[in-house]
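Quick note —
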Amino acid sequence: MGFVLCRKTMTRVMLLLIVTMTWFVAGDAGGTKPEERLFNIEKLEMFVDKLPHIPTLHGFHIVNGVLKPKSLQIGMFFKKWKFHRDLPATPVFAYGVSKHKATVPGPTIEAVYGVSTYVTWRNHLPSPHILPWDPTISPAIAKRGGIPTVVHLHGGIHEPSSDGNADSWFTAGFKETGTKWTKPTYHYVNKQQPGNMWYHDHAAGLTRVNLLAGLLGAYILRHSSVETPLKLPTGREFDRPLIVFDRSFRKDGSIYMNATGNNPTIHPQWQPEYFGDAIVVNGKAWPRLTVRRRKYRFRIINASNARFFGFFFSNGLDFIVIGSDSAYQAKPVSTKSVLLAPSEIVDVVVDFSKSTSKTAILANNAPYPYPSGDPVTDENSKVMKFIIKHKSETDTSSIPTKLVQYPHADVSKSVRTRYIAMFEYVSSADEPTHLYINGLPYNAPVTETPKIGTSEVWEVINLTEDNHPLHIHLGLFKVLEQTALVETEKFTDCMTEKNDAVKCQISKYARGNKTAVTAHERGWKNVFKMMPGHVTKILVRFSYVHSNESYSFDATQEPGYVYHCHVNIGSRRQYDDETFCDGQVIRFFRKMDGDTYGYHSHPLALQQDGRVTEARKLLDEFEKGSIPSLLTYNTLISGMCEKGELTEAGPLWDDMVERKCKPNAFTFNVLIEGLCKMGNVKEGKEEDGVKIVSMAVKSGKVDRECWELFLRKFAGELDKGEGNDLDSRDLVAHSFIKGWLGFDLLQVVRQIFSGPVVTVKVFEDNGLIRQFLEEKRVLVEGANDVQYSEATPWFKLIVNGCIRDVDEINGCDIGVRALASHPIKASKKGLGEQ
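Predicted structure written out below.
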């Protein structure tokens, strides 16, 4: 499944995801223009609010002088928050031990190396959401109300069930939970290197809005025996987190998120990124901090959805970088500026005794979107103000020449090289529709299956126009080099066709100018900026980097881990936003008798090389006790379907059933994709389609786009006068219905639209009714061709669905008028009831 399939997906997105504003739980309503509702940010005076001290929660007990594990109860609450002295209080979602104590950002959790912290995250959020969210991208949706949430500790190294998987969401009181939810209490083992992390919401399709609403906070892991000898600035006054993000506000103080898409013909609310007008630090817009003439430590977290920050001081002060993301540097690095992508962390020391001025503005010069967007304005070019006291004082803290030394990262010992390609799909209007990693959607079979204790080289190929901060859960990495691509368009065309960097001769194109990795980013990281038009080579380590020891927990358990881009889209998000990139899952395999892992990887390699028959034979060679997994079957079935050999996939299905290996959405998707390649369905092959459709409907595991592809392809072949290449032309909505009715398959149409997988929605009802019932044909003609008892229930489905649309001139009106004027109305009992 490669980039070509993604282009089909783009076509489906453009044609079918046209929905009305009623689909969004919250958002802009009425005819008022957005600029008339926005608070004029220029009216807010900067630097009037003091920088808040974020509350601290200790993730440990001290009993008789001994550190002990501690359990915390942290809730998510709806409340109002003052972002600025002159701005009305803002409705937010906030973390805290109680509603009264909840803050934006949430409390900073301080943990100690080797002492476990247990956190029960409790959702107290009421419906509806305070921001617009988009149900067309498969988000977490609670059927009984409530707002789905789940917490990810960004940079944390812990068991999969505590990682905050996007499908591990839950609502208030755990009334509803996602498919991957396992337990209410997360276990953070705190056995990784000391450093900085942050926690934030991670719910499928809702990360961007839950983050914007305020669900984020800092997490610091301390290790006294490592850090005390460094004599860095310490204490509540001199060691402070700075959590920076951007927000826009309405006149009533509420957070403004534009609910009008850049190109409504594609989708009424989709926008590439969210950029706020005001810069917020620790919950206050443009705060001020009075400092002494001495050294301060600032742990700076970029918690913005999409904004990069190019930090510098207006008076020329240096940043002494001592850490990046969740790890210390080997030695301090002095720099005049720091570029921080969304979700990145930089740990710095600033020596205000070296200032020649009484004040210093922490400023920003990063274009938005980065790197080729608009220049900064007066409002978003300023972050906060430091007022420097005149009196000098004794400073006992220091900046050592060396910091923390980790075991050497040896590239020669990496066990393999992987190629990770990012490709963005755009509409004819040059608006982005989706971005896949390696041409695969989130629910595709796992392709990254590293072994615990190993290192791998990943070459990340960014074929987009934007800089993408890539975040890897669990594993840390070092950036080795960044190389510009030459003849990018030619290479992109090859990748679009083959989705294989090796077959496209990546070495032939990755020979442009090399960009040196900045000195303060050469340590271990969990996020890095993937430059557009470049190949970024990283060394990923799947063990503790401070000791090279294996993890203290079982990392092979479900649901695995993900890696993804960390730009959270303004009005939509492809599953795991967490972002613009469709996240991919990393899963570790246990060592089994007969080396099952080898049997999984070998069929995949053979299938990718076109040797599907040889791959199929490997099933017979599996040793006793080494049972083929769903990945094995999906790989083989995909290969058969890719070759158009759907009949060969049948025995594989039977073998799966016999071994009690349950198919997932990908299994059905590739079967249906294979069916679409069968050729002329009129030659008696439609029963294969009906069988697959029936199985898939009963399983409830096939996604919406899959159905649409199948129906269009299948019906296009049935409908006389319609070409088979349906992805290269505009498609009228009635073509598949007309084709199916012509073959007495109305029952299958009804099954699809009334089944648990594809439910009747307002926008499908109206789209169908407007485009073919208005012509007074197709469905009505179908009723003449099949038993009327078969047609009547489907009419009811449509009409019942239409009633949910409150638009005055809607598809239901058109449909009723069309049916009422048709001559069969009087002669067919029951039609008048519709």
